[in-house]
Design brief:
The protein has two domains: 283 residues, Aminopeptidase (3-Layer(aba) Sandwich); 90 residues, no CATH class. The longest helix has 27 residues. The protein has eleven helices and 18 strands. It is 29% helix and 28% strand. Helix 3 runs parallel beside helix 6 and helix 6 packs across helix 10.
């Protein structure tokens, strides 16, 4: 009888905790506040928040003001919420390459390196790797590009039709990028090679916006909440509209990050350090999150909740969202367990063929083993306003979006409080 009473008490206590947490969520994460932030970020005067434009600078200023209002501290030692970094755009390149004594045409090699002067050969410390004929070219290339060391990649001429696409990787890159040389050749395992190059660059400044709430007991363990605040700007007109507001992609995610910052700051009972990041340059190659990720020891990051396009209903309707890479760690199971007693459900990503786990701002840390996942509702097989001027606030379900943000806050609670630590991504299984 005593055991029955204890179990009954535990049951009702757990239910009370859920009710209390839900009450705090309802008071702090309100639809009115969600609507206010979303409407400002996706307003016409933000000009679509394209990188390198006044519009994205205006958005950055707004996010900074919201972080200040929430009471976040700065991550940077200089006291700024701006995490500044440089992208490099090669302007003039003079280069020559010989393989086993033969001169290679300039059209058959590409350089992606932040170094102004290069002198590369088989003894210079570069890893020489090959993509031979008969392999899955894109899977092989993806694995090689995940490496964070200097390398020269010899690509068989069987893939000549794909080689021009690699110019994407050499047009612009981070200032701290590893050097990679792509070579199209029949000699994928040469005995000798020698590349000499001189480069000049244009430096292009960019800024992530980052704030933190230092942990109460585990300040050196981090939980990250993130979304990207850039979008496409002004582009090709569709039905007379050339302004790509990006209300769902990803003003919705950025709104969630701001609301979560306000919520956890008000609760003020987090055990681990919470990091709130609004990334730039996602739309042109996830450069903001790539730079951000390099500033952390991945072992110290215990979880990352990346939030991307949560403004529309998922394929299951309201009170639902999906988690990319659900099977990679047990983080999704922890989140779903924390939602017991609520009407909300997190599902595994139903669009696995699109490889979304490695296509958003969670990817860089996930590749380092961090349980870093993206939460979304976007119907990737049928999202009518994706990357169109029609991605405006009027197309969103703000009530449901508010419920999703509340669900993220509640489902993350045991991770934030140090009670749960998700398993790590098995980096040997990356593909």
């Amino acid at each position: 009888m005593r055991l029955f009473k204890s179990v009954l008490l535990l049951f009702f206590s757990a239910g009370t905790i859920v009710v209390q947490a839900q009450s705090a969520l309802d008071k702090i994460i309100t639809e009115k506040e969600v609507s206010r932030i979303e409407n400002i970020l996706a307003a016409d005067d933000m000009q679509g928040r394209r990188v390198f434009t006044p519009g994205i600078e205006k958005a950055a200023g707004f996010i900074i003001d919201e972080f200040k209002r929430a009471g976040l501290q700065t991550l940077e030692a200089n006291g700024s919420y701006r995490q500044n970094f440089m992208m490099l755009k090669p302007e003039h390149v003079t280069a020559g390459l010989q393989i086993d004594g033969n001169e290679i045409p300039a059209t058959h090699f590409l350089i992606r390196s932040p170094e102004k002067s290069l002198n590369i050969n088989e003894n210079s410390g570069y890893t020489a790797v090959a993509i031979p004929a008969g392999t899955d070219f894109f899977s092989h290339l993806l694995r090689l590009l995940q490496a964070n060391h200097n390398q020269i990649i010899f690509i068989d001429t069987a893939y000549a039709k794909y080689f021009p696409r690699l110019t994407y990787f050499s047009r612009q890159f981070l200032q701290n990028a590893a050097s990679t040389v792509f070579v199209l050749t029949d000699q994928t395992h040469p005995e000798h090679f020698n590349l000499k190059a001189q480069q000049t660059f244009t430096e292009i400044p960019l800024s992530n916006i980052v704030g933190i709430l230092p942990g109460k007991k585990l300040p050196n363990e981090y939980v990250i909440f993130s979304g990207h605040y850039d979008h496409l700007g002004i582009g090709k007109p569709v039905n007379g509209d050339s302004l790509y507001n990006g209300a769902n992609d990803d003003a919705a995610g950025t709104t969630a990050v701001i609301m979560l910052a306000k919520y956890y700051a008000r609760l003020n009972n987090h055990v681990r350090t919470l990091v709130f990041a609004a990334f730039t340059a996602e739309e042109i190659g996830e450069y903001g999150s790539a730079y951000f990720s390099e500033q952390f020891n991945p072992d110290a990051v215990k979880a990352m909740f990346n939030i991307e396009m949560i403004g529309t209903e998922s394929k299951w309707g309201t009170n639902s969202a999906y988690i990319t890479g659900f099977d990679k760690t047990d983080m999704g199971q922890i989140m779903q367990h924390n939602l017991q007693g609520t009407p909300f459900t997190f599902y595994p990503d139903p669009y696995t063929e699109q490889n979304l786990f490695y296509r958003s701002d969670n990817a860089t840390l996930a590749k380092k083993g961090v349980p870093a996942h993206t939460i979304s509702t976007s119907k990737m097989d049928n999202e009518p306003n994706y990357h169109k001027p029609s991605d405006e606030v009027k197309t969103l379900n703000l009530s449901n979006m508010t419920a999703i943000i509340r669900a993220i806050a509640l489902s993350a609670q045991s991770i934030v409080n140090g009670e749960d630590t998700p398993t790590r991504v098995d980096t040997t299984q990356l593909r």
